[in-house]
Design brief:
The complex is a heterotrimer of chains A (about 300), B (about 300) and C (about 325). Chain A has one domain: 3-Layer(aba) Sandwich (Rossmann fold). Helices cover about 40% and strands about 15% of the residues of chain A. Chain A has an eight-stranded mixed sheet with strand order 3-4-2-5-1-6-7-8, sandwiched between helices. Chain A is globular. With about 300 residues, chain B is α+β, with helices and mostly antiparallel strands. Chain B has two domains: about 210 residues, no CATH class; about 90 residues. Helix content of chain B is about 40%, strand content about 25%. In chain B, strands 1, 2, 3, 4, 5, 6, 7, 8, 9 and 10 form a ten-stranded mixed sheet that branches. In chain B, helix 5 runs antiparallel to helix 6, helix 5 runs parallel beside helix 8 and helix 6 crosses helix 8. Chain B is elongated and about 90 Å long. The N and C termini of chain B lie far apart (about 75 Å). With about 325 residues, chain C is α/β, with parallel strands linked by helices. Chain C has a domain of about 220 residues. Chain C has eight helices and 13 strands. In chain C, a hairpin with a 2-residue loop joins strand 8 and strand 9. In chain C, helix 2 crosses helix 3 and helix 6 crosses helix 7. The chains are: A alpha/beta (about 300), B alpha+beta (about 300), C alpha/beta (about 325). Chains in contact: A-B, A-C, B-C. The interface between A and B is medium-sized, with 19 and 25 residues.
Chain lengths: ~300, ~300, ~325
């Protein structure tokens, strides 16, 4: 299964949520890999705490692979190479957790040729033989990268894939997330141009809300009644807006609560962060765990 | 001088094993050429051979610059309708000329790479099974692409019963006093050095492909058994994780099935040390014991329930 | 009991390659396109007038070369029914034969160009396309798939693309294409093999001409069998090109259609086409079993053949 992570705008927490989903999926006993296709800023290594590739791989990163400058992109075994003590041993029963970093100082794609699409398709095909889940971080907004992966998956009709669109729970983000999918030259338009079936592609897209502050959250206990009422009204309006834009509950795969840890530092949330040091909220870890299950649960992906 | 090649082996990306006729279509890599199929003792289909032109440095242990020009032979195979391979090899010979000749010269010698200038066989052999520098002849990449070609066939449903990595076997064969050395490197990389009596024939390639198939089977079964975490997880769960091995792998073990008589002793010596079949049997026994125990537990639970 | 030695064979696991009878040389007396036909029988007579002395020369040369002087020379004529359809066999063939007879030329075999693309369910063009092995520019190490412009074949390395694929990346300055086997300077040739409109593929004239050369050299096999063996026509010439066999034997006494070598007598306007044909043929990998058969046969006859395929093909441009 290939999963493409995209967001309407920057700063949605797409990368940190994507990496945490992958991490949880590995803990659930699956072999997983994470491909850093955020070519303008390949920093997934930092989230996995692999300092050797914190800003991308010095050589043989995904940029070089797609350009044709190396035959195999570098693979980082997170269980072996992470600097974080809590990640450095593979928990019993966990699957492989592999990162394919971008290239240090690599830039966004400015064009792509048929050969680049072929190399991308070859990479996806081979990884899919080996891993239960391959998550591809496609960066924010309309980009050549998004077009590239749409072109590559159109050449691999038998390989299952899904898209996750990350957005924050605000007016602008909801509208933009819908626009990215259904707007002119959005995912569906471009996908259809490249040979995907529009309806089928639409069925493979779900939304994930990030940094969500629920009106009944513990954080809001100290608020005045007026503030709480206002928040509740806002939330109601947003829900209505989301529904109108096709970003509502039925198209949503899950939501991740606002967690101070993720706001301050993009990192994987381990059970130790929740139970021992208690810096992260249990709800956050539970949300990731839930998403990691739903991503492969076909009942969550039935046609809309 | 010597022959060298690289075999990539992986699980065919299909939910079940494929039939002989599907095999023929999947492996029909060249119009007008027949896919060769043998049915005994295990179904085995071999694609027509295709050539790839190369003009590049050859791997050398001493890191000297040795230029070779010629063609690499590649082919794909499917064993038991289940295991797919991409395999490439060349025979390296000294060129009679000291410069590159017209391309048609090399085309009339398929599978031969001619060395321009000086080169020692031992240097090349060690360089190839060692750690070849980038920019050197890369038969692994060629074999990988040939395996991709099979895996991307529209006749396959891509719903393989389990995820498993490919393995690669890089081999070098020379003429001389018989000896064989099989080495495991990383989890997926193996090398083989072979010295055989008499001149090189394609039967040597068959032997290497046969060894690669069986090494992949063993490697994959080990991974599946490890994933099942026998003893650490409830019996039924472990059995569920072992099931794909029973359905898809256990019947494929057929050592030296396609190896010519004169090369059998090489397989036999590997059976003594490290003992491929010995390890395979012990794993198979473990899988079967686990299933037997689990079945017994289920049965006695059922009987217990019936008595109550 | 003594050990029993068992032998086990499976027919489907073996590879069998038929052999083909061979002349010493196959001479192409002409190649008829619609424009030649439209120019009237005069053009054809002119062509045969020019060819006749060359055919005599070739016969003489081979008589000297072959022990005992028993040279096997067969002649053939190709009619284009692929790029444009004109006239009918019933109308055209007798006219061609008549014009040839005026110059004492015997056409042994007549072939249709479309047969080089596909005939009798055998796609000869596909067969040859799959046997193309690109001439590798230096530093081709196999790590990347051969650089291909789909439907094209060249004799070297094309100009690298100059636009960067990465935002804020460096653009490369223009570089010229390079011929692989250049002597000092390049003569870079890039040949279009086919084009496609929708799902219909049209093979290019040089590509079909390359197939035609391989057919005449007896170097093609389909499933191990010899494709398009010459057929003797019973009855008259059909009214439809499709009803005409791919290769027709006109002369019952003719030596075999295929030959060790070929000679084509052509108008100089075909020069660029034949350069393209040689570019293609120098990158076709003929089955080595077939090559071995031909080599053994010629050696047994005491005839040394050029090792390389393209050197077995010669031309007279008149």
């Amino acid at each position: 299964m290939l999963v493409f992570a995209i967001s309407d705008k920057g700063g949605t927490g797409r990368s940190v949520t994507g990496t945490n989903i992958v991490y949880r999926h590995a803990l659930q006993g699956n072999d997983v890999c994470y491909l850093d296709f955020d070519f303008g800023s390949p920093t997934a290594g930092a989230i996995f705490s692999v300092s050797a590739v914190a800003r991308g791989a010095p050589e043989n990163g995904l940029h070089e692979y797609l350009r044709g400058d190396c035959t195999q992109p570098r693979r980082v075994d997170v269980w072996a190479e992470s600097d974080r003590e809590a990640l450095r041993t593979r928990p019993p029963g966990a699957g492989r957790l592999v990162l394919l970093p971008g290239t240090e100082s690599g830039g966004e794609l400015s064009a792509f040729t048929d050969e680049v699409v072929n190399r991308c398709a070859q990479l996806f095909g081979r990884l899919e033989e080996e891993f239960d889940l391959c998550m591809v971080d496609v960066s924010a907004g309309r980009s050549f990268t998004a077009e590239l992966v749409l072109a590559a998956t159109a050449r691999l009709p038998a390989i299952p894939f899904r898209w996750l669109v990350f957005h924050r729970w605000t007016r602008q983000h909801i509208i933009a997330a819908d626009g990215l999918v259904t707007g002119a030259d959005g995912l569906l338009d471009v996908g259809a141009r490249l040979g995907h079936d529009r309806e089928d592609l639409h069925d493979r897209i779900r939304f994930v809300r990030t940094a969500v502050l629920e009106p009944d959250a513990a954080e809001l206990v100290g608020l005045r009644d007026e503030q709480r009422a206002w928040l509740s009204a806002c939330d109601g309006e947003l829900r209505e807006l989301a529904r109108r834009h096709g970003v509502g509950r039925t198209a949503m795969l899950g939501k991740v609560p606002l967690d101070p840890v993720l706001q301050w530092r993009e990192q994987l949330i381990t059970d130790e962060d929740v139970l021992a040091s208690k810096i992260a909220n249990a709800e956050t870890a539970a949300a990731f765990d839930e998403l990691a299950k739903k991503i492969v649960d076909d009942s969550a992906w039935e046609g809309l | 001088m010597l022959a060298m090649g690289e075999v990539h082996t992986g699980l065919l990306q299909n939910s079940g094993e494929i039939s002989e006729s599907t095999c023929r279509q999947v492996l029909g890599l060249m119009a007008g050429e027949t896919v060769r199929v043998s049915r005994r003792p295990i179904p085995h289909a071999l694609s027509p051979e295709r050539l790839t032109g190369v003009d590049c440095a050859l791997p050398s242990a001493s890191r000297s610059r040795i230029r070779g020009v010629g063609t690499v032979v590649s082919r794909c195979a499917v064993t038991g309708g289940r295991v797919a391979q991409g395999s490439s090899y060349v025979r390296v010979v000294r060129s009679e000329a000291d410069r590159r000749l017209p391309w048609s010269h090399y085309l009339s010698r398929p599978g031969v790479v001619e060395v321009l200038g000086k080169a020692k066989a031992a240097d090349l052999a060690e360089g190839f099974v060692g750690d070849p520098a980038p920019g050197c002849l890369d038969m692994g990449a060629i074999s990988g692409r040939f395996l991709d070609l099979v895996q991307a066939s529209p006749l396959l449903d891509r719903r393989a019963p389990f995820r498993i990595p490919r393995t690669s076997l890089r081999w070098v064969a020379e003429t001389g006093e018989p000896s064989i050395r099989f080495t495991l490197h990383t989890e997926q990389e193996r090398t083989l050095r072979l010295t055989h009596p008499g001149p090189f024939t394609p039967a040597v390639v068959d032997l290497c492909e046969d060894l690669a198939t069986h090494d992949w089977l063993l490697t994959s079964l080990l991974i599946i058994v490890e994933r099942a975490r026998i003893g650490a997880t409830p019996g039924a769960q472990a059995v569920a994780r072992l099931a794909p091995a029973i359905d898809h792998l256990l019947h494929l073990w057929m050592p030296a099935a396609r190896v010519e008589e004169w090369l059998r002793p090489f397989w036999e010596s590997l059976e003594r040390q490290p003992g491929f079949t010995r390890q395979w049997r012990s794993l198979v026994d473990r899988v079967r014991d686990q299933i037997a125990t689990s079945t017994l537990a289920l049965l006695s639970a059922a009987t217990e329930a019936g008595r109550r | 009991m003594t050990p029993v030695h068992a032998t086990f064979g499976e027919v489907a696991a073996e590879r069998r390659i038929a052999s083909v009878p061979l002349s010493h040389v196959s001479v192409e007396l002409g190649h008829l396109y619609m424009e030649d036909f439209e120019a009237g029988p005069g053009r054809l007579r002119e062509q045969f007038r020019k060819v006749a002395p060359w055919l005599a020369t070739v016969r003489a040369l081979w008589r000297e070369r072959v022990p005992g002087g028993r040279a096997r020379v067969s002649t053939c004529f190709l009619i284009d029914d692929y790029f444009s359809r004109f006239s009918t066999p019933a109308e055209l063939v007798p006219m061609v034969l008549e014009a040839a007879a005026e110059h004492d030329l015997t056409i042994d075999y007549l072939a249709r160009e479309s047969a080089c693309a596909e005939s009798d369910g055998v796609e000869l063009a596909r067969l040859v396309e799959d046997r193309l092995v690109d001439d590798p520019p230096p530093d081709t190490d196999g790590s990347r798939p051969p650089v291909k412009e789909t439907g094209w074949l060249c004799n070297g390395a094309r100009s690298p693309r100059t636009t960067p694929v990465q935002a804020m990346g460096k653009a490369r300055p223009w570089e010229p294409p390079v011929q692989n086997a250049k002597r000092g300077h390049s003569i870079f040739v890039d040949v279009e093999l086919w084009d496609e409109k929708g799902s219909r593929r049209t093979w290019s004239c040089p590509f079909l001409a390359a197939v035609w050369q391989l057919l005449r050299l007896g170097l093609l096999r389909s499933e191990g069998r010899v494709p398009l063996p010459p057929v003797t026509l019973d009855g008259g010439w059909p009214r439809d090109w499709d009803a005409l066999p791919a290769v027709v034997r006109l002369n019952p006494q003719a030596t075999p259609f295929s030959a060790y070598t070929t000679l084509s007598v052509l108008s100089p306007r075909f020069l660029p086409v034949e350069l393209a044909v040689r570019t293609i043929l120098s990158q076709v990998a003929v089955d080595d079993e077939v090559l071995r058969q031909v080599a053994t046969r010629s050696e047994n006859e005491g005839i040394g053949l050029e090792e390389e395929l393209v050197d077995r093909i010669s031309y007279v441009f008149v």
